[in-house]
Design brief:
Length: 732
């Protein structure tokens, strides 16, 4: 089987090079278990040790993949916040009114900080956890200070682990972000092979589009993560620019894959099956293996990895040649032959971009490591940028705008949590703080995501309690439970990042084992924990449904209009580039990024529609069909853009300007109807757009013939969107 080695490559990339999950899990294990093991040896077991262990555990869960000193800064800020939250919780715990009022404030804070930065969710949950932990243990102020010292001590231990882990943690975030783009290219290509070559029914159009969107996400994350250098030496600047060139090449390779995708959809004739199952299968497999190797070498920059990648890229060249020879004897229709020629041309482009990447890496390896230092701007900088007065004013204004989604979400979370705390305190439920804690973890900005996470948490908790209860009944010594806790806490950290439902299962088992270690374990307590989790998950789902829900049908028109507009501007930019009407140095790359990002947003919106209740789902299939056509428009424009890079542009073509003017009217019609304008009886005039492509210049060369084909496909996709809009309007 071809896919096994590719999956092995992806496992290595995901766990070791790009996202070092195992090393992160080990740090979590050390943070949680060292206080539980070492402190009892020093002063005997006491309840305060649990506070120290949880303080270290919460800080270690911050999933920040940037430089160490910034992560340490973030962890220290969180340490101060959780100590304050714990002290406030212990003070307010004896009063129902103070408990509920404090939870409202904490809930608003947790919801708002969730959107403030990538790691805001971890901070919000940690602050909420320690406030609730404090509510469950109301004590006087002096005693609360004692608990606060333990929490802060555990937090300092987690920070120390971060400091000491510097030599053992994957660094170089800039290289890692570029390598991840190549990794997503590999997974997209694997999905194309599964669907169109092996005809795996488990890989549908939705899965393919998701993989395509993942490439865009990886590129956007890399762009957002790192800003242009300020003042640097020549070698630093050279290093930085080289990495930017590597990312640009990876993006162009992804664009070539989009073209491959379009042609593979057309080449479905039975006459092509023998070639698809042999020569094309081997060719695409060779390309996939090469991209996986390129991803590895970009991150490691090791000569031996470069050698392996070079061999794989050379193998691609041979495979493409053999595939081309195998196609020469085929009897095909003119449409299929043209699609096959375009497919082969796209394979050559893909090979060219891989060769270009290899050359760039060879040049990169000529740098001495002491000659450069990666210059980047991580999400921490966005956090600091948000502290500027102008940005703060805008943030506060948005926060208190009752019509904003952010304010509604924060209010929804706060009200839900106050209800949860009221139930916990009013009925004096043993360990009832798990009701609110479950809710703060489960509730998401969108109903569908909340329901999915609530179900996963409920299933994981029930299964974990069953196994944890069995473990609790085993006649094991204390040391065995400590050893078991070490293993389980590792599995918790590993699976929370990779499979939430499995992670929750191990979280529950871990909590049961910790109860046993602290001599608090009982079936009654486990029962209350299960009941609290069920109530919390149900409250989160109900709150998402009742309190100012944001349904995707309401958000879809604006997102779709933006996608249509960005695709229109993308096409306009590509034609202007061909006709040499752009300023010197300006190209179509940025327009492509904006168009694909807009497509990504509206695609995610439709995905969430399928997770919403049936009574609010209206014409979701038609919406998905419109988004699919919009995405294909962007693919065709990208294919057109790649072709014009190879065409000698000696003079502007007024024929392209005429085509753009005709298509522009169609884009305008779509935008108007999407905004709710009265539906006219007739669709736009597509005939004029097609006739503009019958000019002799489009038959002057094979490349111009390809351009005409891609522009015709754009007209077809726009016509599809118009028909869908009219159908959607009349079916309401």
């Amino acid at each position: 089987m071809r896919f096994q080695p590719i999956r092995q490559f992806n496992t290595i990339l995901h766990q070791e090079y790009l996202e070092p999950t195992i090393s992160w899990a080990i740090r979590v294990v050390l943070a949680l278990n060292v206080p539980l093991i070492v402190l009892p040896l020093w002063k005997g077991f006491s309840y305060e040790i649990i506070w120290a262990a949880f303080g270290a555990y919460m800080l270690s869960l911050i999933d920040y993949r940037g430089s160490h000193y910034r992560k340490i800064t973030i962890q220290f800020i969180e340490a101060v916040l959780i100590v304050i939250a714990a002290l406030v919780g212990m003070y307010a715990g004896s009063s129902l009114l103070l408990s509920v009022g404090g939870m409202f404030i904490i809930g608003m804070f947790a919801a708002l900080i969730r959107n403030w930065s990538d790691y805001g969710s971890s901070i919000g949950v940690a602050v909420g956890f320690f406030y609730l932990f404090g509510l469950a243990n109301p004590v006087d102020f002096q005693t609360s200070l004692s608990f606060g010292y333990y929490v802060f001590g555990g937090a300092l231990w987690a920070i120390l682990i971060t400091v000491l882990s510097f030599p053992f943690t994957a660094s170089n975030p800039l290289r890692r972000s570029v390598a991840k783009v190549w990794k997503e290219n590999t997974e997209y290509l694997d999905a194309l092979i599964l669907r169109y070559i092996t005809e795996d029914k488990s890989v549908d159009a939705l899965a393919i589009t998701g993989k395509e969107m993942d490439i865009r996400k990886a590129i956007d994350q890399s762009i957002d993560l790192f800003a242009r250098r300020q003042t640097n030496t020549r070698l630093k600047a050279q290093h930085y620019d080289m990495m930017m060139e590597l990312r640009k090449t990876a993006s162009l390779f992804g664009a070539a894959l989009n073209t491959l995708h379009e042609e593979l959809e057309v080449l479905n004739s039975e006459d092509l099956r023998p070639v698809k199952n042999s020569a094309l299968y081997k060719t695409l497999s060779a390309v996939a293996q090469a991209t996986a190797r390129i991803s590895i070498v970009i991150f490691t920059l090791r000569a031996e990895d470069l050698t392996m990648a070079s061999i794989r890229v050379k193998r691609c060249e041979i495979a493409i040649g053999l595939f081309k020879e195998a196609c020469e004897e085929l009897t095909l229709t003119e449409k299929e032959r043209q699609a096959l020629r375009h497919l082969i041309e796209s394979l050559h482009k893909s090979h060219h971009y891989m060769q270009q990447t290899i050359s760039q890496i060879r040049e990169k390896l000529n740098f001495k490591k002491s000659d450069y230092l990666e210059n980047y701007k991580l999400s921490f900088n966005h956090f600091l940028a948000g502290l500027k007065p102008r940005v703060l004013v805008e943030f506060v204004r948005e926060m208190f705008n009752i019509d904003s989604q952010q304010f509604r979400y924060a209010l929804r979370v706060a009200i839900g949590l106050t209800i949860a705390v009221f139930i916990f305190k009013f009925f004096n439920i043993d360990h009832g703080h798990w009701i609110a804690l479950t809710m703060i973890i489960v509730i998401q900005p969108y109903y569908g995501a909340t329901r999915k996470k609530g179900i996963e948490r409920t299933v994981g908790t029930v299964a974990g309690i069953v196994l944890g209860g069995v473990v609790m009944l085993l006649p094991l010594p204390h040391q065995a439970f400590v050893g078991l806790l070490v293993v389980i806490s590792f599995l918790v950290a590993y699976f929370l990042r990779n499979n939430y439902k499995v992670g929750v299962f191990f979280v529950t088992v871990m909590m049961v084992v910790m109860m046993q270690i602290s001599k608090q374990g009982s079936w009654e307590l486990i029962g209350w924990r299960l009941l609290s989790t069920l109530i919390g998950a149900a409250l989160a789902i109900v709150a998402s449904y009742v309190f100012w829900p944001v349904w995707e049908e309401q958000r879809f028109p604006a997102l779709f209009s933006n996608a249509i507009e960005q695709n229109r501007l993308y096409l306009k930019q590509v034609i202007a580039y061909f006709n040499r009407q752009l300023p010197t140095g300006e190209s179509w790359y940025k327009s492509r990024r904006l168009a694909e990002a807009a497509n990504n947003d509206v695609f995610a919106c439709v995905q969430r529609m399928y997770e919403e209740p049936q009574n609010v789902q209206r014409q979701v299939d038609l919406s998905f069909a419109k988004v699919g056509a919009c995405i294909r428009v962007a693919r065709e424009i990208t294919s057109f853009a790649l072709i014009i890079n190879e065409v000698e542009r000696t003079r502007p073509l007024p024929e392209l300007a005429l085509y753009l003017s005709q298509v522009d009217e169609v884009f305008a019609w779509i935008s108007g109807q999407n905004k709710g304008a009265v539906m006219p009886d007739k669709l736009p005039d597509f005939k004029a757009a097609r006739e503009s492509l019958s000019a002799p210049v489009f038959a002057s060369s094979e490349a111009m013939g390809f351009i005409r084909t891609e522009l015709e496909k754009i007209v077809f996709e726009l016509e599809t969107i118009c028909v869908l809009l009219k159908k959607q309007q009349y079916s309401r």
